[in-house]
Amino acid sequence: MKQLRSFIKKEFFHIFRDARTMLILFGIPIAQLLIFGTVIKSEIKDVHVAIYDQSKDETTQQITNKILSSGYFILDKNLESTNGIEDIFRKGKVREVIVFGNDFGQKLIKEGNANVQLIADASDPNMARLVVSYTTGIINDYVKKMYPNLQMPLQIQPEVRMYFNEEMKSAYMFVPGVMALILMLISAMMTSISITREKELGTMEILLVSPLKPVQIIVGKVLPYLLLSIANAFIIVLIGHFVFGVPITGSFILLMLETILFIMMALCLGILISTAVKTQMTAMFISMIGLMLPTIILSGFIYPIENMPVVLQVVSHIMPARYFVTIIRAIMLKGVGILYVWKETLILIGMTLFFIAVSVKKFKIRLE
Amino acid sequence: MEKIITVKDMVKKFGNFVANDHLTFDVYKGEIFGFLGANGAGKTTAIRILCGLSSPTSGEMNVAGFDVYREIEKIKKNIGYMSQKFSLYEDLTVAENIRFYAGIYGISPKKRKEKMAELLKKLEMESAKNKLIAGLPLGWKQKLAFSVAIFHEPKIVFLDEPTGGVDPVTRRKFWDLIYEAANNGITVFVTTHYMDEAEYCDRVSIMEAGKIEALDTPAKLKERYNAKNMDEVFIQIAR
Questions:
Q1: Touching B: A residues 6-65, CB under 8 Å
Q2: According to the model, what pLDDT value does residue A168 have?
């Protein structure tokens, strides 16, 4: 135990003394999160909308005025029917069509329930999401101010329809995606580099000649990165939640447990890489090209898997990040429990065990 | 004399290539045993087997009283090892390196403190105690690497080309440390291809193509091969 403690202490010296390591560990995650976050969170301004007002009463007039004077929207045209909405979208200028139902004002007062349909061009899903949520906000705000005393649950429930990408599958994807990416990067790349560095420097031989057991060497290498990765995951979730408003509807503990599982998987992958290669450069190259790019592209983080060619969809099944992103999204956004993600969890556990088994087999106790 | 390493018919094959072909030799307690040979003669392979870094194909080997096949963990506690790469962590200070090695060999903090103070004084490196290894001169690194390798007072220390790439003056000073260790009862097993260093050894073995061609004291080898120095002995054998 004392031997292991000396070893871990030494690892932390390596980490904290190397500016590049520190940057990769803490600078890049935050930078990436902020970059991805702001790209998606961009303010909307002067978005062109079309309005089809079927009731043309005072209420709809006031709502329309409010929407148009908000600064976010510009009226492109008033429609007289729902025909041709798709054509309007195809031209590309109009991003949203607002359709007020019949007798909007009357229904609102009498039934406490009025129809407004928001149709958005979701070929740019993030934009569509923003446009819809802004419009919804303005409408609800209006109703609350105008009828503050009504007892009935007086909420206009806009009926939202996303054209071209009905289920808006990439919304809120960036926090789970960035999390997968960063944990993969830190855990797999940093461990594989730190082990190959010992090989390159010749210190690995010294460690193997010493009474340290191989398992102590591996644990000593992995534990610091496990702790740092957990800290990182924490930071990402907090920034995602408090800065970008990504909800955490499910169990936070389950979220963290799944995250630790994913980190373990990535660490084992890192060990596996380091047993296969000899130099830091190769380890880095494999981690970058072999892990990072597929994680970005094939995990469904940026490009929805459903839209990929079948071949890539098949390939995406071997990407651990794919399952992690699914799990995290389900827990954070849908608030589901383990019962809904057990399949993905099992797959990750299976991958972890597989990597451990292969690493142990390959880790050359007696450096041949 | 007491034997501390016994090797009988040691064979190591890599596929069809025979790196060590039936090596048989003994090393006595407290001696400086030189293990010579051209590059690729099989020196490093042999040293790695004796240290437990590589497993032999066949043969009977005993190091510090323990069997190479079954008691490798016990062997590891009783040997030190230094390679030509010096094997110190450049981003750690002198004191941190010593503490680390003391730690992985399970030396108690109290004993470590005493020994470290003693060692730094001997090496005249007290002022460099808290300096990073990266900033030290090569000669210092080498001396420190050797001192760290014998910090846990092993019975045997294996030195694999410890003086590679170092100038003659520094090499000479380094050998003073080796003599001192030998005087303190540590057996030194050293590989080198500097023939002047071979003269400093108590006994040398010369390997050629996986076999030991000669094994004796430098004086007797010179006599047998009718040579002025070890360089000539080596050239005759290697030819």
A1: 6-7, 9-10, 13-14, 17-18
A2: 42
